[in-house]
Amino acid sequence: MYHKAKKSMGQNFLKSAKALSQIISAGEINLRDTVLEIGPGKGALTEKLLETSCTVVAVEKDKSLFEFLNEKFAEYIKNKKLILTEDDILEFDISKLKIQNKNYKIVANIPYNITGAILKKFLSSENQPASMTLLVQKEVAERIVTRDKKESILSVSVKVYGMPKYIAKVPARYFSPAPKVDSAIIHIGGINKEKFNTPLSSSILNEHIDLLGCKERGQTPEDWFFTVVKTGFAHKRKMAISNLSEILKREDLGKAFATLEISEKARPEEIPTEKWLALSKML
Q: Less Cβ around it within 10 Å: N or C end of the chain?
């Protein structure tokens, strides 16, 4: 069956056997896993996933591809090794498939234009995956793992939940049609929300208990963390402390920065994720 890629859906079909093998290897998949695949397309990655004997849940938005996949993988669907559903991943409710209490993984070649939305949806979900192995735009992959040593809202937002790792570059020619830019495989392991609930060291708490105000602000530790980070990055050319002064007292900020050994001249991209987290717990 011929299927013309739809630009509106960000469709670029991966055709490289080498890249497919690298994705499977990075995903560390075993037969006990349930793997969520986003946008299976023509099923090249789906086929490799099924070869591992795991259970695959594939969500495809394109109706014609959904019908094609239903026919191509009819035997796997019959044996319940593949659960295929027609849906938009950003509206998809994983709980309806009754796997929310299982340790599922996400493995997918995702559309460039919804990378951020997919990361936010699943990393912040109450039903977080154990890991995410994704094929994304190379530039985005490099920003997430901070290859230039500069943090961003994106990199901090990923690192606070898990450990991102750059796996390999995937050249544009490995796709059909070929996108204008190269891609890269990233793996985010150890996904959890434990960092938000881990208290600061007792010495910091005892000395600066008056600064702790998360609950008083009516937000969860997770929500308050993102409020602090987004405010801190609001104006990248300004110092982080100046940006944060828009919502917090400069005196409190000065105490927190000094305690955490953050220079008051630091720009937001110079502050590592763990210190953004500590700041959110102190302010």
A: N
